[in-house]
């Protein structure tokens, strides 16, 4: 019984030594992987910030275009008050199929 336990402990000890040896050899690979992952995270963060800034600028352009369109429609309706505004939402929605 004691010999079996000794044999199993020896096998486990050898396995442990092999794992530790492999870990020591793979340390530079893991270190490189961790460094590259950190750089990727930094670049992704920068990309997200740049994309958010772009979307904010694009939203400002869209808001400006909407305000300009509303202003033009308002001027058309005030110049010809008897004429229907062809660009109003009610006229457009009635012209579109359901």
Q: How would you characterize the overall build of this protein?
A:
The protein has 98 residues and is an all-alpha fold. The protein has one domain. It is 87% helix and 0% strand. The chain has helices at 2-79, 89-95. The longest helix is centred in the middle third of the chain and has 78 residues, at 2-79. It is rod-shaped and about 105 Å long. The protein starts with a helix and ends with a helix. The model has no long low-confidence stretch (mean pLDDT 81).
Fill in the keyword field for this structure.
mainly alpha, 98 residues, 2 helices, rod-shaped
- Note the main sheet: none
* End-to-end CA span: 85 Å
Radius of gyration: 35 Å
Number of strands: 0
Number of domains: 1
Low-pLDDT regions: none
- Label the structural class: mainly alpha
H-E order: HH
Count of discrete alpha- or pi-helical segments spanning 4 or more residues? 2
Binned strand content:
under 5%
Explain briefly what this protein structure is.
Residues 86-98 have a biased composition (Polar residues). This is IMD domain-containing protein. The chain is mainly alpha-helical and 98 residues long.
SSE layout and pairings?
Layout: H1 2-79, H2 89-95
Region (Disordered): 78-98
GO molecular function: actin binding; phospholipid binding
InterPro entries: AH/BAR_dom_sf, I-BAR_dom, MTSS1/MTSS2
